[in-house]
Amino acid sequence: MKFDRIAAVLFLAVGVLFVIGSRQLGSSSYGSEVGPDIFPMFLGIILVLLSVRLFIETLRSDSGSKEKEKIDYKPFLIIFAATLVYILTLETIGYVITTFLFLFICFQTMERTKLFASLLISACFSGLVYYVYVDVLKGTLPGWPIWFS
Prior knowledge:
This protein has 149 residues and is mainly alpha-helical. The chain has helices at residues 2-23, 38-62, 73-93, 95-110, 115-136. The chain folds into two domains: 1-71; 73-149. Helix 3 (73-93) packs antiparallel against helix 4 and helix 4 (95-110) packs antiparallel against helix 5. It starts with a helix and ends in a 13-residue tail after the last helix.
């Protein structure tokens, strides 16, 4: 559980940095009613709230267990590598495809048995967020790649 506490504090710091960094972005973008600061700010707030919850849960569960936990680094490394690939390919491949692939890889890394559920959730989430952000809120996200259109 020590690992969870350390992770909670690190995620809290990253969330706070997201919020601070998003406030330094411009509040509007050319051709967009929603500025580039909105998503990072909300993601930072969500990350802060989730890390506080994780920290509180680890404090509650730590009181009874003193056994040494075995840390499995493989899922962490897979998700970390997927995050780096996501960041590097977002502009060239587009939001919908990269987000779908990123979510699918993460879901399968966490639970391999639910292939159809992973496909469905990944597709619905990436498509729905793109639709809401671009069509409803009139924001801009990297669209489809040129070779796909």
